[in-house]
């Protein structure tokens, strides 16, 4: 299903939109997005759009994935916490660019599908768990980088506490979908946090707790 022509078009579009980090572009090129979208949408996997996945969630637009990843300023030494495994696509992109990704998902079915995709693609530096993203993963803290793929109303305090010195956290924040922005928080060596307001976005809301099994 991998369509090289569509993929090249997508990479060129991302460059035009300001994605300049060659490692991020290379990861987008190498990770097959069609492995993470439902079969009914596979023919649209390389369009620069968000697509629906199970449990009322979405796989983010490639531009937003690339933008947030670029904002994290990753390298192979970094340990990353991801809140919201979702389809697993963003997780797989991160895995190509850092040492290890710890990813938390509140929907068991999404987590199982993502884990199956990681296994199929032989990605071995991702550790996942079912849990409440608001609580983070204290046993594995501190993290060099934290990325959140659902919009919280305010920055979750527990996540900020789990960000290490010289750490960067990138997350969408906003009370409703019409008023969300990506924030980049940077923590210095003394634990002081500075905040930058970046791109306006629309993400699914961040919900506390683990989803009830239907």
TrEMBL record:
It holds the Pfam family PCMT. The active site is at residue 60. Its EC number is 2.1.1.77. The keyword Transmembrane helix does not apply. One of its GO terms (cellular component) is cytoplasm. The keyword Methyltransferase applies. It is an enzyme of class 2 (transferase). GO terms for molecular function: protein-L-isoaspartate (D-aspartate) O-methyltransferase activity. InterPro entries: PCMT, SAM-dependent_MTases_sf. Its main location: cytoplasm. Keywords: Cytoplasm, Methyltransferase, S-adenosyl-L-methionine, Transferase. It comes from the Bacteria. It catalyses: [protein]-L-isoaspartate + S-adenosyl-L-methionine = [protein]-L-isoaspartate alpha-methyl ester + S-adenosyl-L-homocysteine. Belongs to the methyltransferase superfamily. L-isoaspartyl/D-aspartyl protein methyltransferase family. PANTHER family: PROTEIN-L-ISOASPARTATE O-METHYLTRANSFERASE, PROTEIN-L-ISOASPARTATE(D-ASPARTATE) O-METHYLTRANSFERASE. Catalyzes the methyl esterification of L-isoaspartyl residues in peptides and proteins that result from spontaneous decomposition of normal L-aspartyl and L-asparaginyl residues. It plays a role in the repair and/or degradation of damaged proteins. This is Protein-L-isoaspartate O-methyltransferase.
């Amino acid at each position: 299903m991998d369509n090289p022509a569509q993929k090249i078009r997508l990479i060129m579009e991302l460059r035009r939109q300001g994605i300049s980090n060659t490692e991020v572009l290379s990861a987008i090129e190498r990770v097959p997005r069609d492995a993470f979208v439902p079969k009914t949408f596979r023919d649209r996997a390389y369009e620069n759009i968000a697509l629906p996945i199970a449990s009322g969630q979405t796989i983010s637009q490639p531009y937003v994935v690339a933008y947030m990843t670029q904002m994290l300023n990753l390298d192979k030494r970094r340990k990353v916490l991801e809140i919201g495994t979702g389809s697993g696509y963003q997780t797989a992109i991160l895995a190509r660019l850092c040492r290890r990704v710890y990813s938390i998902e509140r929907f068991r079915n999404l987590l199982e599908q993502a884990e199956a995709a990681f296994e199929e693609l032989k990605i071995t530096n991702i550790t996942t768990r079912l849990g409440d993203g608001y609580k983070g993963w204290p046993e594995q803290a501190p993290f060099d980088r934290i990325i959140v793929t659902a919009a919280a109303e305010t920055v979750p305090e527990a996540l900020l506490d789990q960000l290490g010195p010289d750490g960067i956290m990138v997350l969408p924040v906003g009370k409703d979908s019409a008023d969300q922005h990506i924030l980049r928080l940077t923590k210095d060596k003394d634990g002081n946090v500075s905040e930058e307001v970046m791109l306006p976005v629309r993400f699914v809301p961040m919900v506390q707790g683990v989803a009830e099994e239907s």
